[in-house]
Design brief:
heterodimer; A: 1 helix; 10% helix; B: 3 domains; six-stranded mixed sheet
């Protein structure tokens, strides 16, 4: 998923400012992650199987991970 | 077609070589590779025999699609009773050796008995001979492969072999082909060594044909495009399997310090980004990627160690490019040992290939030794003065060299984690199932993985099931048994085709069925593949029951069942195996004792 990180990201992490009341879907749009992309989301170490409508709060740690496959 | 319809059978005790027709009734019921090899193994040996004795049978099995133009058609399986587990061993490898064996005209190579002195097997189409290998005994894989290629006079000769650990019965010795691809798990290399068989050199020019060539080519074109377009495949090509280390760290399922923790901050130093970033000496670990025979993924990595690194500074023979870190190697030499030194991990990865040892079992065994060292159960006197603390890269390098040479404390490490933990009085610190060490996924974070580990017929294994998508939804025991059972059956079928399961993210069962159907005689719909997969799974189970295993062996270490995950998305959770296992047995059509019922056996055409 690091392909979608904006400039300024270090070690796979970046701090972003979003408008108040922003949802996870707005974060996806900001990062230009296409709808066809598959990923897993955790927010503050809680898995969110259906994250798109989730309201983000100030200070949330959002992790967007590639799907798991055997390696 | 697709099958060569020929089996090469060798009695090593008597030095006799037989060319026999393939049993097509069995081929129609089990297809090839894993399934067909399991059928032959079950018919040819008593599963109760000593795995390192002459009565164990060693089978190299290709699938009907091995050596064809299908993408990833370089796979073959090695089957026997596994010395690490006492259960059936079925270890799968890529590279080019399997396709070469198939092109020499054979579906299966079966080895029985024990040669009276070291030999290697030379196969050039139907010219087959056993040759003295006294001069190669004690050699590394790399030396053996180079020597036999030179001796054959044909640079296209493909070689598989074992190093000293295979010769000395290290329970997790593997068989390495093409320098750095391996039939890695369950100790199949120790069985090869126990037969005084150092190597097999194969060269084939018979070719492999399809039943309906035009239709087969059209199907292959379609499936290759599907694979090319798949985002998962694209990531695998670009980053290799080691991309998983970032995901597992973030998820909190990355086994760290012998499974005491589930996240490893040092993963950033050994991940794909670290592999492709120049260090302070201007050295970049990763050189390029590499594909096996016929593969359009190319997940393999080619890397080199910084010549200034302590591990190789005085060893220029290791400054060349070789097999780089893949996820399981990175996990087992890195986080689970608490090591974050990319050059040390890469060098030790080289050593595991050079000496034919499974890096997963080796790394997890070292991790258990490290925990016992920190507890004081293993002392400096035991290790020969090596300070075997978690995170000590120098110690990791030292014990890898000793294990490869089977000297000093490396002899103890060659026991594998289970026996090592028992020897030093801490059996609960063994992290595995049925004697085989875990791959790089913690069952508290990935609950379905825990069920797959517990029920895998070859001991703890991450490659015989795929419950990843369900494991991402809820971290409990609900709803995991069905996808675990179904994916076990499907993967048994995929393994039996001769293709690589890394295609499974892009292809559905209909894509495998279409390729088999065009390549083989007869009708091969999806349901036939699923049924032969289930038949294979149950036949493997029957082998294990006859070997003396029971339902009590379908379990996990206390650490995963009783000690909650300390961090990550599964913080506070344990693996709910009991919930999943009961449902799993019911779905399998097995009794509460884990034994297939007569109805189940009858439905699958198996006998009690």
């Amino acid at each position: 998923m690091s392909d979608y990180l904006p400039e300024g990201a270090v070690g796979g992490r970046v701090e972003l400012e979003l408008p108040a009341g922003a949802t996870f879907a707005q974060l996806v749009a900001r990062l230009e992650i296409p709808e066809s992309e598959r990923y897993i989301v955790s927010i503050n170490d809680t898995l969110l199987p259906e994250p798109l409508e989730h309201l983000l709060q100030e200070g949330d740690q959002v992790i967007i991970m590639a799907p798991l496959t055997a390696g | 077609m697709a099958w060569q319809r020929k089996v090469l059978r060798i009695n090593l005790t008597r030095g006799e070589i037989y060319h026999e027709p393939l049993n097509m009734e069995w081929a129609n019921a089990y297809m090839g590779s894993r399934g067909l090899g399991t059928k032959y193994l079950s018919e040819m040996m008593d599963p109760a025999v000593d795995a390192l004795g002459p009565d164990n049978v060693l089978i190299f099995a290709t699938g009907p699609l091995t050596g064809t133009m299908s993408s990833t058609s370089g796979r073959y399986s090695v089957l026997c009773k596994g010395p690490l587990t006492g259960a059936i061993a079925c270890s799968n490898s890529g590279g080019k050796f399997g396709a070469e064996l198939k092109n020499a005209g054979y579906d299966l190579l079966i080895l029985e008995g024990r040669a009276p002195s070291p030999v290697y097997l030379s196969i050039i189409n139907d010219e087959v001979s056993l040759k003295a290998a006294d001069d190669l005994w004690g050699s590394t894989v790399w030396h053996t492969e180079e020597t036999l290629k030179e001796r054959s006079g044909d640079p296209q000769t493909k070689v598989c072999s074992v190093g000293v650990p295979g010769e000395r019965g290290v329970r997790y010795a593997c068989i390495v082909n093409d320098l750095h691809r391996a039939a890695g798990r369950s100790g199949v290399g120790a069985v090869m060594g126990s037969k005084n068989l150092k190597a097999i050199a194969a060269r084939g020019s018979v070719g492999v044909t399809a039943d309906e060539p035009q239709r087969f080519m059209a199907v292959v074109k379609d499936t290759m495009k599907k694979l090319a377009d798949d985002r998962g495949r694209q990531g695998m090509t670009k980053y290799g399997t080691n991309a998983m280390i970032d995901t597992m760290h973030a998820f909190g399922g990355l086994p760290t310090r012998n499974f005491q923790e589930v996240q490893f901050a040092g993963s950033e130093k050994i991940n794909p980004a670290a592999m492709s970033t120049a260090n302070e000496n201007g050295h970049t670990n990763l050189i390029t990627n590499k594909a096996c025979f016929g593969c359009s993924i190319g997940c393999g990595r080619v890397a080199h160690v910084d010549p200034k690194h302590f591990s190789v500074a005085d060893k220029p023979q290791y400054w060349h490019a070789s097999g780089g870190l893949e996820y399981e190697t990175a996990y087992a030499l890195g986080p689970v040992c608490g090591v974050d030194d990319i050059d040390a991990c890469t060098y030790v990865g080289f050593l595991t290939n050079e000496h034919s040892i499974d890096p997963i079992s080796f790394g997890v065994t070292v991790a258990a030794a490290m925990e016992m060292f920190e507890l004081g159960a293993i002392t400096l006197e035991d290790t020969g003065g090596i300070d075997l603390r978690f995170g000590n890269a120098e110690a990791l390098v030292q014990v890898a060299e000793l294990t490869g040479a089977q000297e000093g404390f490396g002899v103890d490490l060659g026991l594998g984690s289970k026996l090592l933990c028992e020897k030093y009085g801490h059996p609960d610190l063994f992290m595995g199932v049925k004697g085989q060490e875990f791959a790089g996924y913690d069952s508290r974070a990935l609950q379905g993985m825990g069920l797959g580990y517990a029920t895998s017929n070859r001991g703890a294994c991450h490659l015989k099931h795929d419950v990843f998508s369900e494991d991402m939804k809820e971290q409990n025991g609900q709803g995991k048994a069905r996808p675990c059972k179904d994916s076990q059956d499907e993967i048994a079928a995929i393994d039996s085709t001769g293709l690589c399961i890394f295609t499974a993210g892009a292809w559905g069962m209909e894509d495998y069925a279409a390729q088999v159907d065009a390549a083989c005689e007869g009708e091969w719909p999806v349901e036939r593949l699923r049924e032969l997969g289930e038949r294979t799974w149950n036949l493997e189970r029957q082998f294990n029951l006859r070997a003396g295993l029971t339902a009590a062996d379908d379990t996990l270490p206390k650490r995963l069942l009783e000690t909650p995950a300390p961090s990550g998305t599964a913080k506070g959770k344990v693996c709910e195996l009991d919930v999943m296992l009961k449902e799993y047995y019911q779905l399998r059509g097995w009794g509460a004792d884990g034994v297939p019922t007569s109805d189940t056996l009858g439905r699958l055409g198996l006998s009690a």
